[in-house]
Amino acid sequence: MSDDVEQSLLKAFRQMTPTARSTLIDFADFLSQRHPVAATPASKQPLQVPRPTEESVIAAIRRLAKTYPMLDSDNVFSAATTLMTRHVMGQQAAVEVIDELEVMFKARYDDLYRDA
After folding, report:
1. How many Å apart are CA 7 and CA 13, to the nearest integer?
2. Contact yes or no for 90/57 (Cβ under 8 A)
3. Is residue 40 part of a domain?
């Protein structure tokens, strides 16, 4: 990574509120774990992972990835990143983003098995 990129990230980080910093760190952790080595799922059915009453957007993405392990992570995480960005930038509340994530993951699942 170039020094300019690092300096730009550091400058943006320093200008954030403590809450935004925490969210950014969570998001960076999520992205660093984006390509874990996992066995091919044995079932085509979503797993039953309940939604807690209080949940961060990052936790919701992790929960939904566990719920739908059969989905292509690159495809799903690209869309999830867009939604996450709306939340981090303060454009949308966490609960609204999580609701949209739920719909998006379900739609991707339905698309995958529609013709199966």
Report:
1. 10
2. no
3. yes
Q: What are the tens digits of pLDDT across the range 43-74?
A: 688 988 999 999 999 999 989 998 998 888 87
- In a domain? residue 65: yes
| Whole-number Å distance between alpha carbons of 57 and 63 | 10
The residue segments making up the domain with residue 109 are: 17-113
Angle formed at CA 23 by CA 19 and CA 27, multiple of 5 degrees: 170
Place of tokens 């980080």: 13
Within a 13 Å sphere around the CA of 64, how many CA atoms are in the beta-carbon half? 28
Strand, helix or coil for residue 74? helix
* Count: domains in the chain: 1
Measure the CA–CA gap between 66 and 47, rounded to whole angstroms. 7
This prediction's pTM = 0.63
The crossing angle, in degrees rounded to 10, of helices 18-32 and 73-88 is 170
